Amino acid sequence: MAEQRSTRRPGGGRPRTAPLVVAGRTAALGVSLTVLAAGGFAWYTVNDLNGVTRSHALDEAKKNAPKHLDKSINILLIGLDSRKDMDGNDLPKEFVQDELHAGSSEIGGYNTNSLIVLHIPPSGKVQAVSVPRDDWVQTYGADGKMHKVKEAYGYAKDAAEQKLRAKGVKGADLEHQSREAGRSATIQTVQKLLDVPIDHFAEVNLLGFYDIAKALEPITVCLNKPVNDPIVSRVTDSKGNVVRPGGGTGLQLPAGESQLNAAQALSFVRQRHNLTNGDLDRTHRQQAFIASVEYKLKQQGVLDDLGKLQALLDVVKKDVVIDDDWKLLDFAQQAPNLTGGNVEFNTLPIDKFATIGGQEVNQVDPAKLRRIVKQLFGQAPDPAPAPAATTGTTGTPDPGPAVDAANTTVDVQNGSPVTGAAGEESKALAALGYRAGKVTTADTRPRTTTVKYGAGAKDAAQQLAARYGATAAASTAVAAGHVQIVLGADYTAPPAAGAPAADPSPAVTLQMQGPPVKAGGVPCVD
Amino acid sequence: MPAVLPALGLPVFGALADELFGGGLGWLYPTCAVLGAAMAALVATRRGWWWIVTGAPVVTFTVACVVDYLAHGDSYQGAGLATQGLQLIAAQFWPMVAAVGAVLLAVAFRNHRARRSQHG
């Protein structure tokens, strides 16, 4: 190590350290302490960021998740309409009635009134799809029956609660553990319904929503028409039977932009009466509100500033639950991608309204929903509807083997009449994670697109073939690790994840429930 | 053995091994960093102790940053610079503390042994 220079004191005492050495030691100590302090601060920050309540609810869904075709991430946002805190205690009655405008603490169960799947591709537009809460679907992880999608949580929670109670679990533990079952059922049900893997989830309850809105108020929203939604009191007879259900949020706003406080914000996203399309308009309200919040966060620089993001998380962490696998720092890295008009919200279509078992529900065609979602997310739609679709169940097609896209080189030849199709297709496949190979013009003009593969590329070829509705065939003429695609006369460009601005909105051609809500500003809704 | 050899060599070895065989800094790197700092303190001269104590966190931090950046430079682009950087620095906090602790223990051990041999 460094050489010590010292001078011996007259009289033979302890050697005196040279001033230069003292300066060097002091500098070294300063650097060392600075590095340690920086490490300590970083450690504290990371731990604080990750201090949100965690959940294991994704574990079951991950076991049966369809495979990803690219490096995209799907996040399920769950808005839980519960008038209880995390430990199962009723929220204060006055608070629920006067601030939340959510009726009484006694009413309402555990409905997931907002379900939004956020699809973040490696590059390109972020897509968000709302699943209307009254969609009549096959539930998973609950009682295995058909229910409204919003009820999967409550049924699973109730079943788990009974079992846990029998084991002697009670109090806050009972609430925590039974809610895990509810979350798991919701995630599984949405995952099976849409046939997309759910990588992460975030659940926020009524109180959490209020706290977030409180931290951000005033929040600007925009309405196409003025709104008046008076509160109608709930009437019960002497035996407690409901004579007239209550309703209304008390929201009164003019057309155009309005500044909302936290209580009004909650009314804005919960109103379902006095709306042309009822519940479906409510879904659009929720999307518009998220877009407005995101716009405000962007304007305030919160999404670009880790410190501000941390301050916001400190406010809401007690009311938000996320999966235990989600590194919020990674999300903070992606957060800027969610701004600047880069997100589009769509509502999945319903087939018709129906009454089943006395309940008003939305009838949906799961196979159709899957095709729409796959196309919206830039994946190959299922070649044929699953047979189960006609019966209203949500059987999951075999997701197929895992594909090592990064190690598969795709050569594309253009035999189609579309000029530049091979180049565009190669780019689209590269965006899906495949390695771009040769792009050439085919010698022939085949009627259909063909997919051939060399050694070791069978799985990738099969996945790619599904994209074109073709069948993959082995070929010794194709190099190992390569897939050769010859675009035929039947070729029409499938939407690609991360496709550049050439295709700004794949949803334009898809049937959705109402117009898309575009983020990047304050969108106006009904 | 010069003290610089374990002080630098072991952390570099641990980091490279982690990146090559583990795909990222794992448990081997902090273990080697702590062992390297302790060994350096055991073989250094008394005059070198100051530099070993103050250098241990700096070496642990620097080697981790350099090796991880070389191995995963692409993840440090754009917004990743702040988030990945923060994660990396945070992950080095306890290894740095442990390295300083190991050096202080080694120094205490040598002092104790020296006193016993003086009195003995």
Give an overview of the whole structure:
The complex is a heterodimer of chains A (526) and B (120). Chain A is an alpha/beta fold and 526 residues long. Chain A folds into 2 domains: 338 residues, 3-Layer(aba) Sandwich (Aminopeptidase); 92 residues, Alpha-Beta Plaits (2-Layer Sandwich), CATH 3.30.70. Helices cover 33% and strands 22% of the residues of chain A. Chain A is built from 13 helices and 26 strands. An 8-stranded mixed sheet of chain A has the order 3-16-9-4-5-6-17-25, with helices on both faces. In chain A, strands 21-20-24-22-23 form a 5-stranded mixed sheet. A 4-stranded mixed sheet of chain A has the order 8-7-19-18, with no helix packed on it. In chain A, a hairpin with a 2-residue loop joins β18 and β19. The longest helix of chain A is centred in the N-terminal third of the chain and has 31 residues. About 6% of the residues of chain A have low confidence. Chain B has 120 residues and is mainly α. Chain B has one domain. Chain B contains 5 helices and no strands. The radius of gyration of chain B is 16 Å and the shape is elongated. Chain B starts with a helix and ends with a helix. The mean pLDDT of chain B is 90. Chains A and B meet through α1 and α10 of A and α3, α4 and α5 of B. Chain A: Pfam families: LytR_C, LytR_cpsA_psr. Chain A: Keywords: Membrane, Transmembrane, Transmembrane helix. Chain A: Belongs to the LytR/CpsA/Psr (LCP) family. Chain A: InterPro entries: LytR/CpsA/Psr_C, LytR/CpsA/Psr_CW_biosynth, LytR_CpsA_psr. Chain A: This is Putative lytR family regulatory protein. Chain B: This is DUF6542 domain-containing protein.
